Amino acid sequence: MVDEKTLRDAVKKTVGRKDVKYVVGYDKGTTGFQAAPTFAYEEKDAEKFVFNPTCVNNLAVYPMLEDKPPLRKGEEPDTRKIGIVLKGCDSRAIVQIIQEKGLKREDVVIIGIPCTGVIDPKKLKVKFPGQHKSVEVKYDNDKFAVTVDGKTQKFSKDELMPEKCKECEYPTPIIHDILIGKEIKGVKKPDYKEIEGFEKKSLDDKWKNWEKEFDKCIRCYACRQACPMCYCKECMVEILDPQWVRRSVNLSENTAWNLLRAFHLAGRCISCGECERSCPMDIPLMKLNKKITKDIHEMFDYKAGVDAEAKPLLAMFKPDDPEEFIL
Amino acid sequence: MSGYILSKDNLPKFITEIMGKNKVFAPVEVNDETYFKEIKNPKDINMKYDNSKLPPKSLLFCQTETLFKFTPGTKVKIQPPDINNSKKAIFGIRPCDAKSFFIIDPVFKEDFEDPFYVTRRDNMLLVGLSCTNPYPNCFCTSFNDSPASSKHVDILLTDIGEKYFVEVNSEKGKKIVKSSLFKPATKADETKKKEVEKKAVNSITRFQKIDKIDEKLDKIFENHFWKEIADKCLRCGTCTYLCPTCHCFDIQDESTMIEGGRVRIWDTCMIPEYTLQASGYNPRPTRANRVRNRVYHKYNYYPKNLDVIACVGCGRCIEGCPVNIDIIDVVTRAGEVKP
Amino acid sequence: MSENPYQPNLATIENIKEEVGGERAIKTFRLKFQDKNLQNNFMFQPGQCAMVSLLGKGECMFAISSSPTKKGYIEVSVMRHGKVTKALHEAEVGDVVGVRGPYGNNFDMKGWKGKNIVFIGGGIGQAPLRCLIDYVLDNKKDYGKLDVIYGARTTEDISFKDEFAELEKRKDVSVHLSIDVKEDGWKKFVGFVPDNLLKVKPSPKNTIAVTCGPPIMIKFVIQNLEKLGFNDDQIFTTLEMRMKCGIGKCGRCNIGNLYVCKDGPVFSYRELKKLQGER
To answer: What is the phi-psi region of residue C184: left when phi exceeds 0, alpha when psi lies from -120 to 50, beta otherwise?
Structure first.
């Protein structure tokens, strides 16, 4: 249970600092089952900040999305810090980015939220079809309390949580400057049952399954944009000369795009699930990412985004690295 | 409103009649979501769908279109495209989606006529299906439209219980109702249709304030408001790709050493590359520039150039936005911003 | 069925002239349509543009830099910048390109009859002005006093050098060249184009000023023209945006509700002032 007053006070204090540009957190959404990212530029903006089970978005994406238009003559770059409200899983993105030197630790002020799980908006949508007004969802001990049209219903967490919360190892942010409430110890472990099941399928079946999924892709690149780890200055698909992936939307190019992205996230994906949540065509992208995460864990005993001091997986070499796959 | 009646028992026969003359695209349910797909059997159609995941726009304005093929290198040759002019029909299109065609028609029809779009449009029959159960984020009534309007279709079916009330709106439509499956409607049927329509209109609960919005937007172009709105934008293209009236596209050459094509692909104004010039200069360098351009294109530039707001109120961009940029809310608030 | 407006006509590169070398190289390509009929009937006005493509590389919009009074070919002057222009710079005489157009509006050559004209260009911005100057000189009796003000970063960067030399020899045109930074042996103006304009000080009386160049230059040139007494209807410029279709459909070249490809590229300062939008 996160005390929103403590959260707002922390936001107020942070945005009040001279060396902080703004704080990004959550506000009540205008519609549906999810909170919306919001920005505090001054202390009074903190009043709109909330934290509840609809706070799904990984806000770690925002420092990497900042617009940097060319400076005018004599203009100094704004080097002030960015304050971010982060859940445990989200914090792994910042850790990983720091590891990769995409950000410096001192570039961000982290308001950490020990999180007991959020809801999956898609699961709630099925329970309340036709609901457009912003729905109130609260933590109620080990349940979610959903209030629609004045009536409150309780659901078990497993019923509404996304898969990532069911196997959350890091409920408390790995790094933080302010922690809202008490640390929660992670007791769950990643569950690879579904992946293991998929691995057992024939190559042909697997391929057919992914063909069906990639065929749906409309190449809006929402997966890339929602991903805090997709922060390349120029994405390979925007490069025209040479053109790695054609702009044509067809199974071949869509497959190239989705597989290339998955590989570019190898050893970097921190399993926040934002790509899959943002995909307007419901492509199960986390299945790809999770398979790679599993392989990397098994082969290199490595987890992304848990140690800011560690080296990124692809930037290090150990003599005992497995090499069966090297021909 | 003189109408016809089609009994529900005769619906499959009617669809089969259309299928005899046209390739038919209709709402089909796949994993709980509805898509417009070519149907082989009338049973495949989902007559109760609320909103299709993607608008049927791509049936006229394909996401990927080869404008012509060529042989590159020293022996350059151009091979004109083969533009398919076969008869097609969209069965079960919603009045809002049908209106979107009417909105983008002038873009492709006027000045330099686009033969790809125009050929498909001219050969496309639109059998509308009134929306009796609007989606939570639907707001077509904000534009004085009705979820049961026959204005932009050839014929419109409205589910009035055990039968469909049928309205005819074009010469193509008139030919269709000559079939013996259609019987003249009674006054009672007509009243029933009006009741169904009223119920649908009343079930729309979201409204966008668009009174004099084009004039209001003229005065707040430089307002800080646009930065506030765009701060949370991820600059993904979801809103534009799901939009039935977004018509922007990119053109690229895709070729090997021996053959190639000039290809047109849907584009999105949300990405910086959209306006990035080769010199490195970008006139719309920030998300605020781009979000503002999207709103202005629909609510200011379109009304100025073509006297219509380029939004039909389908709500897909609201549904699809990962960060809750809500066009109803954005435009309504924009109208309240003090210049 | 209507014609396919996206399909270009094939043209052969007849001549390539290197205007500027180095990093920001400029070349002028003389193009002749393969279809003789089309070549003879290709009509355009000064200010209009054409889409030129290398098949397999892509398409770019360029101002037609030759005058419609010069028959039998069209020319485009291209600075090496992106994918297509780089490929064009590697092309050779005899290579085939695609051309479609002409597109956009044009300078009001009829309306300007009897008036003096000041041409103010910078860098590659001279391309549309080159067409205009050539057109005016070929119809000299229709127009009054002519001033050509042009500047580049360095002497190396001056485009159309030999053509400026020819112009300087003529008695019916005054040419005022400048470079941004001092160089040995340069006896003409040193400084930015807007400053050279103030030094030349053309009279606004019965005069039209046409300026084309980088956006920042245009901004200050217009400011200085106003200082000299030019009003909004006497100042004209051409604008640039990224383009794909060239025919007002693909969406990206809008400034406010106007498309530069179709409603531009020529705008009077009066029109420009009314236009609210990024450029």
So the answer is: beta
pLDDT at A325 exceeding the cut of 70: no
Q: What angle do CA A239, A243, A246 make, to 5 degrees?
A: 105
Chains that touch B (3 or more CB pairs under 8 A): A, C
Q: How far apart are CA B291 and CA B97, in angstroms?
A: 23
User: Number of structural domains, chain C?
Assistant: 2
* CB of B333 less than 8 A from some CB of A: no
The CATH number given to whatever domain includes residue C71 is 2.40.30.10
Task: Give me the domain span that covers residue C40.
Answer: 9-103
CB-based contact (8 Å) between B79 and chain A?
Answer: no
DSSP code, position B159:
E
Confidence check on the interface: ipTM exceeds 0.90, yes or no: yes
- pLDDT tens across A21-68, in order? 999 999 999 887 889 999 999 999 999 999 999 999 999 999 999 988
Q: Do A240 and C86 touch (CB under 8 A)?
A: no
- In tens, the pLDDT along A200-220 reads 999 999 999 999 999 999 999
C182 occurs within a structural domain: yes
**Contact A70/B285, CB-based, under 8 Å?**
yes
Is the pLDDT score of A322 beyond 70?
Answer: yes
| Percent of chain C with pLDDT strictly greater than 90 | 90
Task: Output phi, psi for C54, to 5 deg.
Answer: -105, 115
Domain-embedded: residue A146: yes
Q: How far is CA A86 from the centre of its chain?
A: 10
Are A137 and A206 in a shared domain? Answer: no
C partners (3+ CB pairs within 8 A) are A, B
Q: Does C70 touch chain A (CB under 8 A)?
A: no
What confidence score (pLDDT) does residue A73 get?
85
Query: Is B324 in contact with A246 (Cβ distance < 8 A)?
Result: no
Tokens 């060396």 label which residue? Answer: A19
Q: Is C86 on the interface with A (CB under 8 A)?
A: yes
Smallest Cα–Cα separation from A269: which of A63, A116, A117, A95?
Answer: A95
Question: What letter would DSSP give residue A186?
Answer: -
- Considering only CB atoms, which chain B residues are within 8 Å of A221? 236-237, 271
User: Which residues in B lie closer than 8 A to residue C82 (C-beta atoms)?
Assistant: 278
Is A201 in the same domain as A308? yes
Do residue A158 and residue A234 come from a single domain?
no
Q: Of A70, A222, A240, which is closest to B238 when you measure between CB atoms?
A: A222
Residues of C whose CB is below 8 A from B83: 1
| Chains in touch with A (≥3 Cβ pairs < 8 A) | B, C
- Tell me the C-alpha to C-alpha distance, in Å, between residue C208 and each of C45, C107, C147, C174: 17, 11, 10, 15
- Answer yes or no: do A141 and A223 share one domain: no
Mutate to test the interface with B, among C247, C257, C279 (most CBs of B within 10 A): C257
Q: How confident is residue C2, by pLDDT bands cut at 50, 70 and 90?
A: low
Is the CB of C59 less than 8 angstroms away from the CB of B304? no
Residue of C nearest to B79 (CA): C7
Query: Nearest 5 degrees, angle CA A153-CA B139-CA A216?
Result: 80
* Residue C140 placed within a domain: yes
Nearest-CA distance C88 → chain A (Å): 14
Q: Are residues C147 and C230 in the same domain?
A: yes
Q: What are phi and psi of A205, to 5 degrees?
A: -65, -45
> Hey, are the CB atoms on C55 and B76 less than 8 Å from each other?
yes
Q: Please compute the mean of the pLDDT values over residues B283-293 and round it to a whole number.
A: 95
Check pLDDT > 90 for residue A126: no
Sequence-distant (6+) residues with CB within 8 A of A98 are: A104, A105, A175, A308
Indicate if the pLDDT at residue B246 is higher than 70: yes
Query: Does C23 contact B at CB distance below 8 Å?
Result: no
Query: What is the pLDDT averaged over residues B112-137?
Result: 94
Whether residues B275 and C252 touch (CB distance < 8 A) is answered with yes
